[in-house]
């Protein structure tokens, strides 16, 4: 079973990763764990002109590696094989593209649990992923 854990570098991600690791016996065979961080792009007009494309790509890579670090350490400590990567784009779209490309069977993500009103006004990444997912989604709070 291929499991994608959406990683944002928060304590909620840590809980989601720990949940998957502690429940591996629920999954058939040897689960294949994918850790994915999606960076929302910064407005590039002025930034790209001022900093240059290479600097912007370096920023995305370094920030993504920092966001993935704790989840990677959890997997390594539990001796769980994993693949880690990052994408730049709209979070739900990038997650769904990754699911399709890699044949993911389950998406796991942490929820910040901000409440119904705030989610209604601002939108929620977990809600967007859940509403458009083509595979089951496990939300860990």
From TrEMBL:
Belongs to the universal stress protein A family. PANTHER family: ADENINE NUCLEOTIDE ALPHA HYDROLASES-LIKE SUPERFAMILY PROTEIN (PTHR31964), USPA DOMAIN-CONTAINING PROTEIN (PTHR31964:SF113). It comes from the Bacteria. Pfam families: Usp. Residues 2-141 form the UspA domain. This is Universal stress protein. It comes from Noviherbaspirillum cavernae.
């Amino acid at each position: 079973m291929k499991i994608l854990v959406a990683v944002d570098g928060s304590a909620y991600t840590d809980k989601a990763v720990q949940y998957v690791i502690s429940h591996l016996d629920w999954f058939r065979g040897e689960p294949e764990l994918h850790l994915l961080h999606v960076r929302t792009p910064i407005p590039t007009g002025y930034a790209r002109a001022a900093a240059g494309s290479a600097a912007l790509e370096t920023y995305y890579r370094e920030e993504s590696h920092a966001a993935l670090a704790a989840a990677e350490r959890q997997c390594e400590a539990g001796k769980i094989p994993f693949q880690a990567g990052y994408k730049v784009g709209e979070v739900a779209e990038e997650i769904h593209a990754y699911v399709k490309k890699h044949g993911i069977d389950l998406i796991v993500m942490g929820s910040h649990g901000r409440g119904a009103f705030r989610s209604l006004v601002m939108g929620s990444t977990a809600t967007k992923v859940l509403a458009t997912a083509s595979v089951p989604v496990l939300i860990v709070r």
